[in-house]
Amino acid sequence: MPEPILITGVGKRLGLALSEHFLSKGIPVIGTYRSSYPVLDQLKEKGADLYFCDFYEQASVEAFIAAVKTKYTSLRALIHNASDWLPESSGLSADKIIDKMHRVHVSVPYQMNLAFKSLLDAHTETMADIIHFTDYVAEKGSQKHIAYAASKAALANMTLSFAAHFAPGIKVNAIAPALVLFNEGDSDAYKAKSVQKALIQHEGGLQEVLDAVQYLFSSQYVTGRTLHLDGGRHLK
Known about the structure:
single chain; 236 residues; globular
């Protein structure tokens, strides 16, 4: 039986695609969610072991960590996909916005990496993996999502520190997407404007992310690196 992969935020988009991808290959998936979606029942039917976990509540995070460590003795990988995207125009106070963004993208991944190290160390067939999903704006910044961009930059920096701290048994890398998948309801005008920001002018697609994750899993020589999926935006 393959060892499980833990993925945070499996209810939609990248987390959902990753979960379905691994389940289709017979690889067990442990997943977290904060909001209920009908698709979660489908994931459970396919064998996913799902847990409600509110990253904004420390007790919820600690309960999840304890539940996983009680039930499982090893992990193949830990993928930090859970995210929130609060703009400065959200109506919340500045201190709440930065605290929330830091909580989701820095504090909880930090806690989970340390807490699950023993389970990742128990994976012996190959090196275990931790993957942080950061963002293109971690390097560029964002005028409308300042706290979000700053927290993703902190997560990118943690990739370096944890790669050094956990070597050689655990590889720690990041994936920084830009335009991977449009949202339902995005207008044609918005889509046309968005793709113009890159050299390769189309959305990357979920398969691009799946391929990136598989590449990092298969590599036995890459750690402490960020893989950019941005269509060459940095050259525009």
